[in-house]
Write the structure tokens for this entry.
Amino acid sequence: MSRPQSIVQRVPTPQSGRGWALDSAASQDWLTASAPDSGWTNGPGAGSALLPASQRTSAGSRQALCLWLPTFELRLELVRTPELDSASVALLSPGESTRRTVWQVSERAYEAGVRPGQLVSQAVSLCTALTLLEPDPAHYDAAVETMLEVLTEITPVIEPAGRGRVFLGMDGLERLFGSPPRLIDRALRSLFRVFPSPLVAATRAGMAPGKFGAWVAAASVRSGQPVIVPEERLSVFFAQCPVGTLPVDPLVVHRLERLGIATLGDLRRFPEPSLVSQFGEDGKNALAWATASRIDSVRPWHRPRPVRVSLEFPNPVGMTETLHVALDRLAERALARPTRRGRSVTGVRMGARLEGGGSWFVETVLREATSNRERIAAPLRAKMAISPPPRAVEALLLELTSFGVASTQTSLFDRKVGSSRSNEGNDFSKDEVTVKLKDAIKELKLRLGHSPLYRVVEIDPWSRIPERRHALMSFDP
Amino acid sequence: MSQHPRLKALRQPKLVVVRTDEQGDPVHVRIPGKTARRVAVIRERWQIDDEWWRQAISREYRTIVLDDGRVLTLYHDLIDGLWYVQKG
């Protein structure tokens, strides 16, 4: 594939890159290299970071810089264990199942035929000297957090898209830091503060209007050769790119390729109605991306500070019952934290530091916002039963990661029309009863056989006899 | 299971044991299940005579303050002679 070098402006880099891990493979074909772990089409964070601009509410930053470190997790492992630098290494996929697969592979392992997604048995038969590494999600997440903190000093508009890839909003920074090449240089140099030089050198950088353009730019070049695509050249730049870069359903991409539409330039030759009739909404979106008529701004990433509690065991614990008790205690402590009060919990993560190194994590989104210990612990216990810690646990960690309103109780009786005060004394009509309240009543009726809810009705509000004024009537909408 | 809406009256009076002075004003009040308290002050009093056309109601109400600071509304039922506490 010919590279769109003629239309981009290259930027001097702090240090030339080292070709290790999957880097060499990626440079051969940036599309295939990006597929296993980039998260663009089917990886983590694919949907979150690249929603069409029309679905967003605020403006964000139009000019985007994408910093991408392919095989981020494996590189971190190799930095931690430098003696493996020249060995054939494969990082196992997270999760505990009987059929473990390979997640990321080093350059040497790749040369030996090991590929991401292969079963461990296949990989070992292809490369007998293969060193298998257990993933350490806590370590990777900590590295991402540090990276984001450092980059926040350059711009507050930062949007991570999975581990190892981040978009920076660049609008309005020229007066602070200078021209776009200087901006990229500054961003890359700031990474030296948190990552060793081989990691920074392997980082790819692309700057363009919109995240899609920035990502395609970053993915299309070798590490250490940042590119800037000006807005007027964006359309020409996209013309060379394969359809596999499109953030649409992979099946649509597959069909396009089978129809002989290899690049975005080929796609642009088709009128919109034809694409819509063939591929529906995805066809329309694909054309919008390909013609650069859709520019997706970088949105400032907001993540509430998680509430973290942990428990160190005097001796490593392997018994599930002990871990369950520890989880209950941790949930109690987390809920009692002053930083949590006034908010219910919607997302929770449990992790463990394992005996002999490594970490383990399970994460869940709660069915409904809650402040109840049991409702938080139960789904985590279920997850733990499916994917237990692979080794004994030295320390258990609980994180409340996302939060909802203070309580669902207050909103149960909110009426759709008007305030409760203005409707005082009026009956609830069926349309006014909230869905939440209906669901709650349904659940109570299943448990108790009848609705235990009552509403206050006026009998004779001006009566001199107090018990004649109001009554409770069973409420069963 | 009955499909009819069920009604529960609010502010139903509850029986209390009251010791009175010679003027008939409460001096000590004991709500069932609780300790007897001394009446610190009687704040207000009024009388209701109503519904004479069916079952006559005749009550002497008093708003009292107990020695622990609680405020109660009591009435002396002049028909049955008993004392009741009732939420206002």
